[in-house]
Amino acid sequence: MKSTMMPVQLSINHLLDRAGRYFPRHEIVSRLPDKSLERSTYGDLHRRARQVAQALRNKAGIGRGEPVATLMWNHAAHLECYFGIPAAGAVLHTLNLRLSPEDIAYIVDDAGDRALIVDDMLLPLWERVKPLLRIVPRTIVHAFTGVPVPEEYENYEDFIAGDASSYMYPEQDENEALGMCYTSGTTGRPKGVVYSHRSMMLHALTECAPDVIGLASRDRILVVVPMFHANAWAIPFAAIMVGASQIFPGPHLGGEDLLDLMESERITLALGVPTIWLMILQSLESPTRKRSLVADMRMLVGGAAVPVSLIAAFEKHGMHIVQGWGMTEMSPLGTVSALRPKHASLSTEEQYAIRALQGAAPPLVEMRLVTDDGATQPWDGVSAGEIQARGPWITGSYHNAPQDSEKFASDGWLRTGDVGVLDADGYLRIVDRSKDLIKSGGEWISSVDLENAVMGHPDVTEAAVVAVPHPKWGERPLVVIVPKSGRTVTEEQLRVFLAPYFAKWQIPDDFAFVDAIPRTSTGKFLKTALRETFKDYVSRTPS
Ligand code: ADP
Q1: Model pLDDT for residues 342-361, shown as the tens digit of each residue
Q2: Full-model pTM
Q3: Which are the catalytic amino acids?
Q4: Relative to the CA of 430, which ligand 1 atom is closest?
């Protein structure tokens, strides 16, 4: 029997029209380089994104399926590009502004970007990328600082000027490309992941669901995670679906700046990686002044493991962390740590422990754990394996590298490179990235577990753990620590602190105290740099 349902194609353009029609007065707020706030609405977004689309097609001759890059901070014009580029039938390609010029050039060439929209304050970076490119895309400059655009460049406002009220979206299949992001390339060259209208619509719908992230039109969302980091976790697409207001911090990412915005803009949900929240916590706890934030503010924290101590510390301020796990290859949502009714009777500490798990997969995402020799592990909370995933918003290949067999199982499932365990309720716990696991005397030590435990010490701000070589044990953990300012902590105190949580042989003998831990381009601890810094380190564990 044939279905009688209409074969309507899923398209992000529908969300743009919907926002213009249903939420024209809902706000978009951007912090400008001079720290002033610029206010606009979804009505403005609807009009201006269509102008972007019309200009790309008519003035720049961009065709269906052609990539258009952005090199921008988080702000309203970037959101216009999020919707305007796909509305032209083209592919939104967000470039990571924290990468080296060499990496950016490689990525622009690999994607074959036809045009680029860049913030004026990032032109010095772009000028360093240009000489390295095979073909320089048509460059359009957004005057973010308010200073006139240099004459040799095309001005974004002039480019998009014109009435686009009768602009028609191209007819597209839902499987056509909508956007692309590159992986960070911590192992080898960055690789392109291409999202479709269909994948992004299903992902956005799912993010909005109450037990997933639960967005609502009354939400005011502070998008701290960069718009180039897996499309700001695709929240801009989900937020527009329900009409939630979006607040963008521009280039101002300090703890005080973000807290000011949370307070003045009455933020109900904020998104960012754990390192951002560690910094915000310090500002929040500094005695300068009491903050008056919206009661029960939520924070979606992901990109790296969330220490239970961070969850507990924010609860004291009435702020609730929700942890998400995912990756660029997964659009990025893989799991979310929400409590279930059966957890209601647990103690606060027990609930925190569940929220510190990476959580359960939402509908449409399937997961399994596979060992090195190909066996599938049971969901018993202890058997570990590589997490493999499948679903409509999980990539099945890489751009320009369809045959990357290392990253895909023979039946097509994505190999995430993360090692984890699943419990009987389907809650995932990430043990480690497989390349970060410390192999000591033939047994594993999880760098994530050690980091999270050490960061629970009251005198520690941040801690990252890497393996150092050992003649007898193979590898031993080295804990690199940033103490809280004005505080000291000794190695012996740390060992005593860790003793209840770890087996004796897992307790580290090696500690290094530093002023700061290097970060990746997306704000995670940069373990490759730590390994390099400590490459000649000699472990003190006795043989
Ligand atoms: P990058 O390589 O720049 O980190 P991604 O943002 O795609 O690129 O990173 C995905 C990886 O981040 C995951 O494979 C996992 O190792 C890690 N990750 C993401 N979220 C979490 C989390 N909640 N807990 C632990 N690890 C996480």
Answers
A1: 999 999 999 999 999 999 99
A2: 0.94
A3: 183, 329, 439, 444
A4: 25
